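SEQUENCE, STRUCTURE TOKENS:
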Amino acid sequence: MLLILETFGDAPLVWYIGNLDTIFGLAFWKFLDVAYPVASIVVFLLYGKAKGGIRVNKVTVGLFASYLFALALMSLDDTIIVLQLSIVLTKGYWVAIQWFYPIFSIVAFFLFGRANQQGKPA
């Protein structure tokens, strides 16, 4: 669910279609744009812990860092707004990231769980 909320919480490609910020009220957009990524990071780490405890090695650190990078790319528009930069992300960027983020996140999520599970009996 967090993957869907993070990917489609905003509507950067089609401004006239309501997004979750509009549905829940514009007063909540700052909260939601922080809550979704933080909750997804927590779930990511909890899944690794549930699969065998958080192991700190090259694979798990690399997967977690790459997941954070993908999440940062997905939230780049919000970062630009907060920093008050005059950068406009292109339609091509959003098409690419809205395909990349969900696919990569799913793969990284399960690989992270598997990497934390290695060495444990099934």
